[in-house]
Design goal:
The protein folds into 2 domains: 218 residues, Alpha/Beta hydrolase fold, catalytic domain (Rossmann fold); 34 residues, no CATH class. It contains 8 helices and 8 strands, in the order αβββαβαβαβααβαβα. The protein is globular and about 55 Å long.
């Protein structure tokens, strides 16, 4: 009897958690590709706060679902859902088949689509945030500095995003493989420099940007932790709201963070609730 009751409870939880999960919703078409997202909306009339999620993968890989290991942005699906957020996890065109700026253009298309469908999905259009990890973190930071009224978000949450792409590159230096695929350039020549400066959101910080929460591990060997520190420093010098959650000993990829930072998901959700001025349901 106890086993039957447990099974019924688990079945009920699964149905409730996935009742409003829509897979592979088309949000646009570009470059001969159908652009798709997964959409989760809580039960009820809303209007709900929402977060648009952008996966990583070096601009040439990754998936909105989190993949077989449920990595990328997937660890945030359940915490957001439990807190009463809708979320929209997007795919975008990948390099090298679709070089820059295809990826950022798709993120911007997704933002406009979610805003345009706010009533259909019972969203609060004034409380939509944008979050991404790794390459997706870079894209959400880039979307923030490129934004116009149609793509402006209420908050931005980049996880270990590479916000500055040039670093200490010397003229005519050979570019790393994923940069070659992303930008279609093999060496750091004048053309590559112009494109990479435009694609480095740190170099385009300006007053008026929405609040930002950076999340980064100190043991990240793919994207230097110092990039997030520098983003915060420059942002605050401009009078912007910018917070940083430091994951001590956190490596690249939040999928492994539970052991070193068991509260990081709730910390992110708490920041979103506070920043978006959401009143918790009684």
């Amino acid at each position: 009897m106890k086993i039957l009751l447990l099974l019924l409870l688990l079945a009920g939880f699964t149905d409730a958690a996935r009742a409003d999960l829509k897979i592979d919703v088309e949000y646009g078409q570009a470059g001969g590709e159908s652009l798709k997202l997964d959409a989760y909306v809580p039960d009820g009339a809303g209007p709900f706060p929402a977060v648009i999620l952008v996966h990583g993968g070096g601009w040439n890989a990754g998936d909105k679902s989190g993949g077989p290991k449920k990595g990328y942005m997937a660890p945030m699906h359940e915490p957001l859902a439990k807190a009463g957020f809708a979320w929209f996890s997007i795919n975008y065109r990948l390099a090298p088949k679709h070089p820059y700026p295809a990826c950022i253009e798709d993120v911007e298309t997704a933002i406009r689509w979610v805003k345009a469908h706010a009533a259909e999905y019972h969203l609060d259009p004034k409380r939509i945030a944008l979050s991404g990890e790794s390459a997706g973190g870079h894209l959400v930071q880039l979307a923030a500095v490129r934004a116009d009224e149609s793509t402006r978000m209420a908050a931005i949450v980049p996880f270990y995003g590479r916000c500055e792409l040039i670093g200490d590159l010397k003229p005519d230096a050979e570019l790393r493989v994923n940069y070659i695929q992303l930008f279609g350039r093999k060496t750091y020549d004048e053309t590559a420099q112009k494109i990479m400066i435009a694609a480095s959101p740190l170099l385009h910080l300006k007053p008026g940007l929405p609040p930002v929460l950076l999340v980064h591990g100190t043991a990240d060997q793919s994207v230097p932790y110092e990039q997030s520190v520098e983003w915060q420093k420059r942002s605050r010098a401009l009078g912007l709201t910018c917070d940083l959650i430091t994951i001590r000993d956190g490596v690249h990829g939040m999928i492994s963070w539970d052991a070193v930072a068991p509260t990081y998901k709730q910390d992110v959700v708490t920041w979103l609730v506070r920043t978006l001025k959401i009143t918790p349901a009684k």
